[in-house]
TrEMBL record:
One Gene Ontology MF term: ubiquitin-protein transferase activity
Family: Belongs to the FYV10 family.
Superkingdom as given in the UniProt entry: Eukaryota
GO biological process, one term: proteasome-mediated ubiquitin-dependent protein catabolic process
PROSITE patterns assigned to the protein according to its UniProt record, in alphabetical order: CTLH (PS50897), LISH (PS50896)
The CTLH domain, residue ranges: 79-135
Name of this chain's protein: 2277_t:CDS:1
GO terms for cellular component: cytoplasm; GID complex; nucleus
Lineage: Eukaryota, Fungi, Fungi incertae sedis, Mucoromycota, Glomeromycotina
Amino acid sequence: MTDIKSEESLYVSRSRQRLEHLNGLTKIPTANSDAYTRWSRVRLDRILVDYMLREGFNETAGQLAREEGIESYVDMELFTQSKRVEQALQRFSCTEALQWCNENKSNLRKMKSTFEFNLRLQEFIELVRARKTSEAIAYSRKYLTTWPAAHLKEIYQAMGLLAFPSTTQRMPYK
């Protein structure tokens, strides 16, 4: 709980710094002033760092943020974490994403996100694909039965995978 609170206060602090930077524009009298040039430079650097992080150039983004002194304006850790989850999903591993879901469960619930459900469903499908039928059934009982009725259709379709082999020509299991 302490870790969550310290992380939360870090993000609140960064948000305040970003707002202060944006508010700084209102105190600049003209666009021809040196203050506006400095403000614009910081803004441009922030945009560049965000772009580089989104494109996966984390080291370059970090170096630019350090050199320009704008580390508090960017969420390097957040992008690093999301990249790690993305790479794991590309390797067909849901473990890191499920761990992230567990850490952010309350926010996901507030957003009514189905991300965790989709991950759990994919894990089930991968077990069926690997022909680990008993593990798939146990997994579905443990993780899929806890979801609301809104997901019943998807769960029923996934359960149909147990009855039809991956070579089936029947829709929607094809």
